[in-house]
């Protein structure tokens, strides 16, 4: 296949409720949506999970737009692509900018699955017909408000609860949750808010039977995490620190973590996600699919990836209604008893809602990739 046209849209969607992490609060979600079209008129959709500011990693949706326009789209232009795995190799000459790469690569995966009339899940090699999901809850104004939210989500059936922690909102909060919900599968995500000197404080979390503690230390570290893991009973899960299969291999070798959170955008796409998944499976390291407050398009990609066999822990892919009054896909992603049913239509399996997409588009640009004078 040859990609003939790419549309980049800058989107802005209002979140149902603000979401607070140790690095800041989201009120709106601003992100890029990509649509690619091949020579037969097949369409594929991808989402960039880069935020509006470089807090989680160094990328933003604006830097993604520049990378796509100046480097990634020119690499795809005129290139015959047999399989989406080739995009991973094609983009290897460009350093980092993984979320920009992933947005385009993901759209090509969706397109490829539609061309070959299969679901994105089966194109990736996933068999599961339903996936088990948990929910990630941001930092709240009070412990009582947090407990009320947990109560709501446990009743909705979510399979595990993840809460955000930061210095000053950690041990007491987790203790209060455990007193009220002694059995619920529970984990904490620090988004890099601590340093090795905080080891004694983090050790206090060992008594609460957490399934894991996610990314306690610096976003670019695997050395201190290995030191910390030796002192903790609770498994460390790495999120921000893992950008590639190579990162995963080194972190596992060093003993920096016992579990890995795979985010498609952070690692540069579905092909790299699958490589990390397969490697972790061979090393008996469980993985789960992280979230970046995605719209329905990115959420659909997460659902498909999660059907692979080593996604044995519930991910952060909650239902559309947890984030949006109206999501931009039909049907929306729904969670029943903590499970999402994997769609059986070709590609991502959810239909983009073009009317709503237009409504939430701030800016868009169409790139024509047809080469003049070249027969297609
Ligand atoms: O670290 O997993 C994270 C949200 C924004 C930035 C980073 C993270 C998160 C979440 C929410 O935990 C996951 C989701 O519900 O999409
Ligand atoms: Mg995280």
Word description of this protein:
It is built from twelve helices and 15 strands. It is an alpha/beta fold and 376 residues long. Strands 5-6-7-8-9-10-11 form a seven-stranded parallel beta sheet, covered by helices on one side. It binds 2-succinylbenzoate and magnesium ion. Magnesium ion binds next to loops.
| Class inferred from helices and paired strands | alpha/beta
Number of helical runs? 12
Largest sheet: 7 strands, parallel
Mean pLDDT, all residues? 97
Task: Give every kind of bound small molecule, once each.
Answer: 2-succinylbenzoate, magnesium ion
Based on DSSP secondary structure assignment, what is the total number of beta strands? 15
User: In order across it, which strands form the biggest sheet?
Assistant: 5-6-7-8-9-10-11
> Fraction of residues in helices?
25-40%
Poorly predicted runs are none
CA-CA gap between termini = 10 Å
- Write the H/E string, N to C: EEEHHHHEEHEHEHEHEHEHEHEEEHE
Give me the Rg, rounded.
Answer: 20 Å
* Approximate shape: globular
Q: Tell me the β content.
A: 15-25%
